[in-house]
């Protein structure tokens, strides 16, 4: 089998099965595991897979920059945001993560909703300026321009001094084995710090993130209250998560 054919075969496996196990592919094709690993390295270098121990997982399309992400499945993000916004109760305190779906949540909060919103995202703050009943706290730190949020030691320290009823958190990858992931180590640490300060944490994940993975784990499945997604409930990954006890709120 030529290199191009092996590449197509691996991409097909990722699309159909949601993962590649190098030793299994080597056995099926009658080639060495080293050859499979080289092919996976090449695919990863082209941004077509996420390498993990023993193989690879589908790469998340949500690792693009902030401007590019605004054009990725906007309808799905709106559905997820609407479901998430409905969880915010009058008088409650909300920790709202940065990102395009979280921004959609902020814009969908009723203008007359009396609540407290804590965020490390300047874009969230701007979106809530015309919500007169919402008290807004901005956590400061070094601005991570890729996601338009504050990260780093100062931001994490600020997060450790707040408390909330609900945290709505974005990730770039949702995978049964890899867990909840994102593409930057400091951003992952900030997300963990935010989630640790809320009574409940729900993950915002539009359908393109389901079954994909990024480099850095944010939280294990036991660390969240549930997942909000517009993915079909019959999606293989959604079914796996439901079977293991993860609460999945379907955004219709």
By helix and strand content, what is the structural category?
alpha/beta
Strands side by side in the biggest sheet: 6-5-4-9-12-14-15
Unreliable spans: none
Per the principal axes of the C-alpha atoms, what is the gross shape? elongated
User: What profile does the largest beta sheet have?
Assistant: 7 strands, parallel
Q: What is the residue-mean pLDDT, rounded to a whole number?
A: 90
Distance between the termini: 44 Å
The string of secondary-structure elements, in order, is HEHHEEHHEHEHEEEHEEEHEEEHE
| % residues in beta strands | 15-25%
**Rg, alpha carbons:** 19 Å
Number of strands: 15
Annotation field: number of helices: 10
Q: Helical residue percent?
A: 25-40%
Molecular structure report:
The protein is of the alpha/beta class. Helices cover 37% and strands 24% of the residues. It contains ten helices and 15 strands. The strands form four sheets. The protein has a seven-stranded parallel beta sheet, sandwiched between helices. A three-stranded antiparallel beta sheet has the order 1-3-2. It has a three-stranded antiparallel beta sheet with strand order 10-11-13. Helix 1 crosses helix 3 and helix 5 crosses helix 6. It is elongated and about 65 Å long.
